[in-house]
Design brief:
By secondary structure, the protein is an all-alpha fold. The chain is built from 17 helices and two strands. The chain is globular and about 55 Å long.
Length: about 425
């Protein structure tokens, strides 16, 4: 039995290698502009920082309209076809950016690219649901997260080298290299075949469309939980740098070191931690809740640090890095389980629409976080962390309560054809 289970855990699904390589290529290309997007687009288009920032904000919000369209397209045509289309849209956008020197041209290209960028995560999640089942979903979630972090870091380093050697022309080269990465990823994904299954217990009706999604209270509860957790995910990029420089009065260099630590831990430990969680047989809801509680512990530690505010740079830097390590551990535990839970909780026939609705929680938190955090910081630097402790603890409690109403096959993880006791709950229990 032990040998059989070991083989099962290490077996790969069809096309997995090509898909993982495509994810790494995509992330590396994205890493060439994501870490310094304002500077990147300013140099590529020649427009002012203020104009670039305004356009990116407006088209980013408008791009949310792509999510329901992408969800419907996935349910009708399959995730792989829609993903290939989005690769084409995103690749064409970055190919055209260096020629978009006027405001209307930049806005048009940015809007098309924003549609592709906003819809892509939901479509990729749907694809993972088509190609993988049971514990394989959790494993691929962890692998994609690790590759995403590693690719972003590698792409950022590559862009720095290109710009360092080529000057401003390097930004144009980076844009075209990113377009090439989307083209290569699309070629790789053409060899991946998803299987669109329709289990007999799946009572979803494609004709119901988004009406059924918004009538599914357990899934909406799961989406609300993700919004609470997504605020915590925004903390590292939005709140952390501001908190260090204003409230703690620490050196800005700590921010870069913290980001590097987070990236390295996610890239190196993502698969290992997720495998350990799966080997313990933890329910996805429980491991997701554990990740939320680890987030809460890290945020509470920020409150303590912000209360004492040590004057020693060594003490301050060491404490901040320990907090970031704890935060990253929470991310490693939470992300694969929460992602796989959302995919498994979505009915097969409407998975695209369900995951498009779920993706809205990420997009809304990204839109809300900057203004929310800065408003609280203006009152007291510790208030944003107090809020995040509350949202993380609330998310942990709610997701555990949702166990009773979510599909058992989503809550439990199947190994080698066996499903945990929680998987005995029928889908109709919703």
């Amino acid at each position: 039995m032990r040998t059989f289970r070991s083989r099962t855990r290490t077996a790969r699904i069809a096309g997995e290698r090509r898909m993982l390589v495509a994810m790494a290529v995509d992330a590396t290309g994205s890493g060439m502009y994501v870490p310094f997007s304002l500077v990147f687009f300013h140099h590529v288009t020649g427009l002012s920082f203020a104009t670039v920032g305004l356009v990116l904000t407006v088209v980013g919000l408008a791009g949310l309209g792509a999510l329901p369209l992408a969800g419907s397209a996935v349910d009708r045509y399959g995730a792989r076809r829609v993903q290939l289309l989005l690769y084409g849209v995103r690749g064409a956008g970055f190919l055209l950016y260096p020629f978009a020197h006027s405001l209307p041209a930049f806005a048009a290209v940015a809007l098309a690219t924003a549609f592709g960028d906003r819809a892509f995560p939901a479509v990729q999640q749907s694809l993972l649901g088509e190609v993988a089942q049971g514990a394989d979903r959790d494993r691929l979630q962890a692998s994609s997260r690790a590759l995403r972090n590693g690719g972003l870091g590698a792409g950022s380093l590559l862009a720095s080298l290109v710009v360092g050697f080529a000057g401003d022309a390097g930004f144009t080269a980076a844009a075209w290299l990113n377009a090439a990465s989307f083209a290569l990823a699309a070629l790789l994904m053409r060899g991946v075949r998803g299987e669109r299954r329709a289990p007999v217990e799946d009572v979803a009706q494609p004709s119901a469309g988004y009406r059924q999604v918004f009538a599914d209270r357990p899934f909406l509860g799961l989406t609300a939980v993700n919004f609470l957790n997504a605020l915590g995910y925004s903390a590292l990029s939005v709140l952390f740098p501001l908190y260090i420089t204003t409230w703690l009065r620490g050196p800005q260099a700590i921010t870069g070191i913290a980001f590097t630590l987070n990236t390295v831990m996610c890239a190196a430990g993502g698969v290992v931690v997720a495998a350990r969680v799966r080997s313990r047989g933890a329910r996805r809801t429980r491991s997701s809740a554990l990740g939320s509680l680890l987030f809460a512990a890290a945020f509470a530690a920020q409150i303590v640090l912000g209360t004492f505010r040590p004057g020693s740079g060594v003490v301050l830097g060491g404490a901040l890095l320990l907090i970031v390590a704890l935060y990253t551990l929470g991310e490693l535990v939470h992300s694969p389980s929460a992602g796989a839970l959302s995919v498994a909780a979505a009915p097969e026939a409407l998975r695209g629409r369900y995951l498009a609705a779920y993706q809205l929680s990420w997009s809304l938190s990204a839109a809300v976080a900057p203004s929310l955090f800065t408003a609280l910081m203006a009152v007291d630097g510790r208030l944003p962390w107090v809020l995040l402790v509350g949202t993380s603890v609330m998310a942990a409690g709610v997701v555990v309560r949702l166990e009773r109403v979510l599909p058992g096959g989503a809550v439990g993880v199947a190994f080698a054809g066996r499903v945990g006791a929680a998987a005995a709950v029928p889908v109709a229990a919703r």
